[in-house]
Amino acid sequence: MPRRRLATLLWTAFLLLWMPRTTALSAQAPADETGRLGAEEIRQGLRQMIASARDRVFPSLVHIDVIAVRYVEGRELRVRRQGSGTLISAEGHVLTNEHVVQRGVQFRCTLTDREKVTAELVGEDPLTDLAVLKINKAELADGGRNLPVARFGDSAALEIGDYVMAMGSPYSLSRSVTLGIVSNTTRVLPPELLSGNQDEMELEPGQTTGLYTLWIQHDALINPGNSGGPLVGLAGDIVGVNEMGGAAIGFAIPSNLARRVAGDLISHGEVTRSWIGASFRPTADTGVSDGVLVDSVTADSPAARAGIQAGDVLLSLNGEPVNIRFPEEVPPLLSRIADTPVGTAFQVTYRREAAIRKAQIATEKLVRDRGEEGLYPDWGFTAQQVTQKMARELEILPKTGVLVTGIRSGSPAHLAQPPLASGDLLQTVAGTQLHSLEDLAAEYQKAQKASPQTGVLVAFDRRGKSYLTLLKPRNPSEAAAAPREILKPWMGIATQPILGEIGETLGSADARGYRITRVYPSTAASAAGLRVGDIILAIDHERLVPRDLEDSSLLDRRIRSLEIGQTIGLTILRDGKTDEKTVGLERNLITPPEARRELNGDLGLTAREMTFFDSDENGWSRDVHGVIVEEIEPAGSAALAGLRLSDLIQKIGGRDIRDLQGFREALMSIAAARPQRLPVIVLRGAGTHLLFIETAWGLGDATPEE
Amino acid sequence: MTASLARRLHVAILLALTATPQLAGESTDFGKLLERTAPALVTVQLVLQVKTTGSMGQLIGDSQGFETETVCTVIDAQGLILCSNTQTTGYMGIMQRVMGHMGAQSDLAVTPTQIRVLVAGETKPFTAKLLVRDTDLDLAWLQIENGGDRSFAFVDFAQNASPGAGDLIFAIRRLDKFFDRAPSLLEARVSSITQKPRALIIPTAGFETSLGIPVLTTSGQAIGVLVLQLPDESESSSRPGLSLEMMGWSSRMQDIGRGVVLPAADVVKATRKALASLPEETPKKD
Q: Residue B169: is its pLDDT beyond 60?
């Protein structure tokens, strides 16, 4: 939009908003000679209004940190997600988006006074993308007695051009405010934007959202992290909940819808809705001039049982005419149906091929699209409760059961004969019929208590065929350990082959041999006085002549074929002169790949013992000790604390860590004490760093990867 | 292994004995060779966990687990087993080498998490532990853990022979489980004897795909074990950059990627070193 036109619009909008409210202020803001307000007065007045509105909601603004889980190929992956929210009750309820808290297992809210407090999920409503958390007030210094609470405004009163503020944490930058105007009050998203109709909009795969929403479109800048934050009118009320946007276009869920959903979630933990199993298409551009077109009818739904078919024209509901010409009129119709009590009988009139018909449709409870999902690590798969919608889409019969959604490679489920696979419908486990995820969880717990050698018989359905397989959990005594290499002799040097041309360039064709590129400290080679640059010509007078790079390891192989403790004579070329050195062969040292490892699920990290080569590569002196961080679980406690791969953990919880055994003992001791905060000192590069692992986030709660 | 499978294996051996009568002019009794050696050939089933980082991790995923099985040789009566290390790692090392620079830029850790040993004539598999390995020689030693006082049939590499170029040699393997893991005789001649990268006996065609199995003279004396010999990273001439060297490797693999015979004397020496490696931990350098 051209800048001049935008400025004109802004001024117009401002004056419309401002003028009715300036009467009281006019005495303080004198008009100019022509009776109009001066620019400075207008600016000051606007500033004052924005500040006033800001101050009524801003203190209630919440930054939300979520640790969520995702299941990928039968494994649990933790992810960290951040969003925004608003305190809406003195009890500590926080309104936010469902997609902020989705699959969350740990929640923490940062209030505007920068205090952090944990929270619990009260309820979520994916159909409107709204959710409510409740903070643990007891963690606050004053017990949360003086929580600032924002109030809802009337979103229906919003008009295009009204000023609004978006508050939240764009890109996790907490306590941010932007200003804009309402661009549209009844926005539906066009098919081109969604690659489909609005009733096909999904919050995550398989989960519909937005059916009942007419979004408030605005241009207060929002970005990732603003999700769930309030859209605030100049009266200082929540008029919307920001859900999506970016690039100066934002979409907020109207406060009237949000208030109702939040109330249901707080009161009942869910939003109960009626469902008839039909979707509708506006009549514009269809040749139909009245009613609304039935777009689709779900098989075996109330609408289907009432005889309604796709292509029928619905004319009235309970005697009230229905006329839906445009997409913006569809969500209110769906809301009207959804908001009736479950079991309500709608008397409908519809037209089919010029014939007017009547029917009665009794609503059913609308259930969630996606079932709960669970992880069964000892068996190595994830499974999901089959919902009616899933059963219909996947053509699963019977309509209940538990669906395998992912298999961990190398797990009992993967190694079973036949192996389980994604898409299998579990029917029985150990002879028990599965109706729900709870049934599966109960059988899983039983199996965990049984002998690890005991296999569990599983019956499952795959494309209409019923199979049996046996899940045999791994014996814990067979836990993986890195295989060790055989002990072999070693001198403590690294070399490069000196080939013909380099030898000649060095001044002598006789220079062909193995040039020492590194003498490791405290080794037989250093004790024997070998130096970098020496060229080894022979071992025990047996000439070694490399002919190509393919001979790079000839010297090493020759040494490794000898015996530990054996003394050998080396003929070397140093400064153009040959010399003899005697070296006693010692045994080789373990390399990082062979080093022992320790997985700690509480901290979400794998540490390994430090090897000689680690010290050498990093230039660590002999008094540097610790364990090396080798793997970090995403969004685990260690990751959140800022530990990095290759950090050398030197101290944890005040205890010096000298080796892997010490690390193990320290963590056992710490796990028993369960401190809230665990100081860790790591050596990273040239400097030490103090980090804090917040154990309340994970100690004892994290699920370790196997 | 089930009892029926064990019975079938015996039947297979007997059939082999009766179906291959000694031909006129042949001094070797193939039936006896097979009968005497086959019981020492065991099927080792492994579940391997493969963790990769770097380019390979992006290509094949950071963590994979799979089941594999290989034929190995029992080398003492207490159930000490000798395998090709390449096979106990599911050939992952070869993959890394062949991938050239991409492989060199990747960390690859292959860890066996379950080991089962199927012994001919036994109804149930034994459990085993990977003791130690020698990646230079491509050997891995496993120990049957629950063999009790049982005495296992074994190949004695201490009673060995050194063939010359052109000599007839045999190897015994087991067929795939699709064929009930029946013992199978392979025949070749010594095509070459090389000293680089170490003393090795190179067989003519016929032994290429078999590793970890014993190679015998016509009279049944051990010559050695079939292994794979791969160049070290520094010996592969791998150069930085997006590597198409794997294309170049295809021509080298006709020699490098085939089974060669590690002489029996070296097997004995390596086994002694391997067992000596076990009781003590490798010390750290301070």
A: yes
